[in-house]
Structures are given as C-alpha cells and as structure tokens.
Amino acid sequence: MRFIRLIFVAALALVLVAVALANRQAVVLKAFPADMGRFLGGTWSLELPLFLIIFVAFALGMLAGLIWEWLREAHFRRAAKRGNAQVNRLESEMDHLRERHKAPKDDVVAILDAPSAPKSRASLPAR
After folding, report:
1. Fewer Cβ within 10 Å of end Cβ, the chain: N or C?
2. In the structure, what pLDDT confidence band is assigned to residue 57 with cuts at 50, 70 and 90?
3. 90 pLDDT exceeds 60?
4. Judging by DSSP bridges, how do beta strands 26-30 and 45-49 pair with one another?
5. Backbone φ and ψ of 74, nearest 5°
C-alpha cells in the first residue's frame, strides 16, 4: 500500500510540475471588475504567474470543501459524543449495580466456588 501511495504522489508531483512549466507566463489578477478599484482607492490587482493562480485557487477550493464538510458533519459528531457519554454513564451504573448486588453469576459456579465441608450425620435428613 505504501508503494502505491508513493507512485500516486510521484505522478501527482509530475503533473503539477508539468502544469507549472506550461503556465509560467505572468497574468494580471484583478480583485474588482473594470475601474471599480479606482473608487475604492488603489489598483487592487496583482501580476502573478498563471500556475500560481491555478494552484492557489485549487488549494482554496480544497480548503472551502474541507470546512463545508466539517460544518455539515457537526451534528454527527455531536450525536456520537452524546452517545459515548450515555454509554459511559450506563457502564458506570452497571458497574455500580454489580458491586451493590454481588451475587454469583451462575448457580453451578456458586456451588463449585463454595467451600466444601464434610457433612455430618446430624445434618442429613431422616428416612
């Protein structure tokens, strides 16, 4: 499995390097359309290599998806936490009841565990 993961990471690295080499030209990234940045005071634009914009956009998309899923699954984590708390409480209650009512679990085991004393004639029933 480790070998397959290594091959996958190497192939991914090769693809990313190929994309970076193919998209080295500089492009202007503007935060606002047309001349809207002029009204906000500044140019609000950057000149970056295209591959960097692609990689950052991909990373931000992955981060947004991760946060979205984490928020979406919050109720599952809450339910699991409540369930674990209930299981712990019930196990504690069960242990307390076992201690309080220490009775043999099985009659046969109780007979085998009981100390064996020789029976005297007086204790035997009359025929």
Report:
1. C
2. very high
3. yes
4. antiparallel
5. -60, -40
Q: Looking up tokens 């950057």, which residue turns up?
A: 46
Start-to-end Cα distance in the chain:
78
d(CA 23, CA 45): 19
Q: In which residue are the tokens 């699991």 written?
A: 80
**Alpha-carbon torsion angle 55, 60, 64, 70, nearest 10:** 80
Of 77, 96, 97, nearest in space to 85 by CA: 77
Evaluate if residue 122 carries a pLDDT over 60. Answer: no
- Output the pLDDT for position 25: 93
Helix (H, G, I), strand (E, B) or coil at 39: helix
Q: What is the C-alpha to C-alpha distance for residues 22 and 51, in angstroms, rounded to an integer?
A: 8
Distance CA 117, CA 119 (A): 6
- Check pLDDT > 90 for residue 89: yes
Distance CA 56, CA 20 (A): 12
**Residue 29 to residue 43: CA distance in whole angstroms:** 11
CB neighbours of 47 closer than 8 A, spacing ≥ 6? Answer: 26, 27, 28, 29
